[in-house]
Amino acid sequence: MSAIVPLLLATALSGVALGIPQPPPLPLPNSKVVICNYETKSHLREGQGKFELANLEPALQYCTHLIYGYAAIKEETLKLVPLNEQFDVIKDNYRQVTNLKIKYPRLKILLSVGGNDDVSGEGAEKNLKYRQVLESSAHRLAFINSAHTIVKGFGFDGIDLAWEFPETKPKKIKSGFKKFWSSFKKTFTGETVIDEDADKHRDQFTSLLRELKSTFKPDNLMVTLTVLPNVNSTVYYDPRAIAPNTDFVILHAFDFYTPERNPKLADFPAPLYDLIDRRPDENVDSWVKYWLGKGFPANKLILGIPTYGRTWKLDEDAKIDTVPPEGLDGAGPPGPQTKDAGILSYPEICVRVQGGGNVSPQGYRKIVDVTKRRGSYAYKLPNPDTDEEGIWIGYEDPDSATNKATYVRNKGLAGIALDDLTLDDFRGVCTRDKYSILKAAVAGL
Ligand SMILES: *[C@@H]1O[C@H](CO)[C@@H](O)[C@H](O)[C@H]1NC(C)=O
User: What is an annotated GO biological process for this record, any one (predicted)?
Assistant: First the structure.
């Protein structure tokens, strides 16, 4: 366990009690950065899944930074705008969140733009506006000035760019995983061209960061970059060139396999290390090595840790004695709280898989990750008598989150980013302890 929490409380209290100036902002020596993502659309969930501002508070003593997700880009003007004007501005959620700094004076709060929440267009036009912003200095200026106005006006401490570049395309499969992999290797080089101007966009993105930083710096505002899942860093980011103009780069090195991308191919969604017979660049370690190898400083690099699992339906022919399993039939059914096919929050998973011996009372078999390389999974076979569906779940749990934090410590990286608080066990339904993934990760740092 790091000394970060007692240190935070002690410095905050002594500063207030004696009326002395606050010590310099984090990161402090020997301490790690803990970025907590807050997905605001969680206020729309129902029942136990509904997340309100009061639910944030038990997490905040563990977080050094809070990221407010998400703002948007307006297509017509290419300016930064609130994604949900009604909630963010009229109902004042921006202000209510930045006002948390009164109670948590060490907390830095950033507004994030994009994050795959701000979706526009389809096919080649999908999220085109994120590339258009880059394409001329006038467009970049419009974006930067509007971002500065909103960030400063609402009392945020900076901006995070969760930039929506085109994702790498997974190859379709005919049958069987092995076949998929070998055919993939052959066609691999020719098929990944999704953005003909990728080289230009990479250079223009470096320019955007430089111009953004020079506008934000006089006000002491931070600039961070979140690399979204399946955005290929080797295509879009030049680590050495962007290092001077970012406070942190946050790697969302997860969701390599999702039922949306791979309906017939389930696999560990967020492995820490390379696994046999998989693409060598779809794991945490390879992402980290790429950024460090290209000259990005370890003390600015942050590893993202998901707080959810990905689910696939199993059909009657399912064979689950191997991973990846066979007999998959698209996204698993929506959870009672998250209500989206193919995804379950950690508490939705833990209530299914915990308890009992080999099989939980709810009929799930859980396989924990003794290798500390790949993450946990659990499954339930279909029941032909009752017509009940089978399901396969690959997920992060407190143990695998600790493993990732330990990796961060051993590599000397800056810290971790939880994605996100609202899918962690914020009510304490698994163990009565709130935020079990966040706490387990912080303990591993
Ligand atoms: C990322 O891009 C590089 C360079 O084009 C390519 O070699 C690599 O296979 C790509 N990775 C993925 C996951 O598509």
Answer: carbohydrate metabolic process
Ligand 1 atom at shortest distance from the alpha carbon of 282:
13
Q: Give Cβ neighbours of residue 163 (< 8 Å, ≥ 6 apart).
A: 113, 114, 130, 205, 225, 226, 228, 231, 236
In-domain check, residue 271: yes
Residues with CB under 6 A from ligand 1: 168, 192, 232, 234-235, 281
Whether residue 331 is contained in a domain is answered as: no
Task: Domain count for the chain, please give it.
Answer: 1
The atom number, within ligand 1, closest to the CA of 230 reads 13
Q: What is the CATH number of the domain that holds 432?
A: 3.20.20.80
193 CA distance to ligand 1 centroid (A)? Answer: 9
- Chain centroid to Cα 92, Å, comes to 25
Which range of residues forms the domain containing residue 435?
A: 4-10+25-307+398-444
Is residue 192 assigned to a domain? Answer: yes
Q: How confident is the model at residue 15 (pLDDT cuts 50, 70, 90)?
A: very low
Condensed to tens digits (0 to 9), the pLDDT of residues 272-329 reads: 999 988 889 999 999 999 999 999 999 999 999 999 999 999 998 888 878 888 889 8
